[in-house]
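Q: I'm a student working through a structural biology exercise. My instructor gave each of us a protein and asked us to get a predicted structure, then write a short paragraph describing it. Mine is Signal transduction histidine-protein kinase/phosphatase MprB. I'm not confident about reading structure output yet, so if you can add a plain explanation after the C-alpha cells, that would really help. Here is the sequence I was given:
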Amino acid sequence: MRWALVKVCVAVTTMVALAFLLPLGLMVRETARDRAFSGAERQAAAIGPALAITGDPGELTRALASTQAGAAGMMAVHVPGHTAVADGSGTRVTGLTTIGTPRATSDQILGAAAAGHPVSTGVPGGFAYLEPVAVGSGGIAVVEVFIPNATLSQGVVAAWLVLTGVAVVLVLISVLVADRLGTRIVGSARRLAGAARALGAGDLAVRVPQADDSPPELRDAAAAFNAMADRVVRLVAAERELAADLSHRLRTPLTVLRLNAAALGQGDVAEQTRHAVDQLEREVDQIIHTARGRSQGLIPGDGTGAGTGADDDAAPAPLSCDAAEAIRDRVAFWSALAEDEGRDWRLSGADSDAPPALVPVATADLGAALDSLLGNIFRHTPEGTAFAVDVHRAADAVIVMVSDAGPGIADTEAALRRGHGAGGAGSTGLGLDIVRRVAESTGGEVEVGRSAILGGSEIRIRLQTAPTGTRSPGSRSRRRPAPRVRLVR
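A: Happy to help. First, here is the predicted structure for Signal transduction histidine-protein kinase/phosphatase MprB. I'll explain a few features afterward.
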C-alpha cells in the first residue's frame, strides 16, 4: 500500500507539473524571441536620426559604428543613390549602397523597401530585421539588423533547467508526503495484523494501541479488535471457571467413594480402590487449580492487555519428570487388572535401576496419557489380550511404545483427530488426542501403526528432550511454536 501511494503521487504530480511547466517553457521561448526582435528594432531606431540628417557614407559609417549592433558587425544600412567605393567600405546593391555587413539578399532588401514596413526574414545563421526609413533626399533607406539564432534562444536553456528542477522538487515533495501518509496507514495496518497473528497464536493479552495519527477507519478497526479480544478473554475465562466448577462438583461423589473405600477393610482390591480414589481426587484438585489459575490470569487489569496475576511478567516454572518412574507407576496400577483378566504384559526400559529419563512434561500429564493408552487396551481388546510397554532413550528424545496383540486400529488418521475415534459406546474419542497434545507440547509426535511383535496396534510416543535446533537429522518432530506474549507497537 505504501509503494502504491507513492506511485500514485508521483504519477499525479508529474502530470500536473507537465501540464503547467510545458506551456511555461514554451512561453519563455517566445518571450526570448520577442526580446531579440525588440532589441533589433531599438538598434534600427538608433540609426534613424542619422539617416534623416545626412546620406553621406562616411557620416553614416561613423553613426553605424556608434551603435551596439553596428560595432558588433551585425548591422548594415542600405542607402539609395550611392555607388560602392573601390576600397571596399561599401557594397553595391541594385539602386542601393550598403554600409556595414549585410546578411540579407538584394531581393529581400528591395522587398522591404517596397513594402514600407519592417520585415523579418530568415538568413543563414539567424534572422534579418529590415526596417525601411525615409531619408532627407526623398528616397527610402533600409536598416538591416542581424539577429543570430543564439540570441533568439538566449536564457531559454537556463529557464528550462530551472523549470525541470522545480518539477523534480515538486515530485520529491509529493513522494515524501505520500511516504509519510503511507507510513501512517501501513504502520497501523501492520500493528493490527500483528495483533491478529498474536491472538491467533494464543496471546489473549495482546491489544492494538489506537494511535492518534492513524486513519479513523483503522482506529475503528483497532477498537473493534480490542473489544473482540476482551470478549474472547471473558468467554475463555468463563469456560475455564465452568470447568473448575464442574470439577468441584465431583468432590461430593468422591467423598462418598472415599468413605466406601475406607469401609472395604484390608486386601489388595481395597488398597487399589483407595489408591484409585486418591489419584482421582488429586486429578480433580489439579483441574480446579489449573482452570481457576488460568482464568485469573486471563482477566485484563488496566486495559493494556496485562493480566492481574501476581507474577504476570515471571516465566512459568519448567515442567519435568522421570518418564521411567511415571511409567512404572502406571503400569503397576494396571497390572492388577491385567492379572484379573489373564492378560500377559511386559515392561522394558523402565527398570528402577535404569538412569532417569527426564522429559519436559508434568508427571500427572504423562500418567494421564499412559492411562489413556492402557485403558484403551483394556476397553477395546478381548480379555487375555497381551500388551507391552517399551521405553527407549535417544540422544534428544524419550520414545515410549505401547503395543498389544489385539485387532489393531483400522483408521489411524481418524484416531488421532480429536473426538473422531471410533471407540464405541462410552467413548469420547479424546484418548489419543490427549496423548498427541502431551507429545506435541515437547516438540514430539505420536505415530499409530501395527506392532511387528504382538501383531496388534502400536502407539509410538516421541517426547522431545533437546531443543529443536539440536535434534538429530532423523527426527521428524512437528513442534508447535510457543506463543509469545507481547504488546503490538
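A: Here are two points you could use in your paragraph. The longest helix spans residues 2-46. The first strand starts at residue 75 and ends at 80. It's a good idea to check both against the output above yourself.
Q: Great, thank you!
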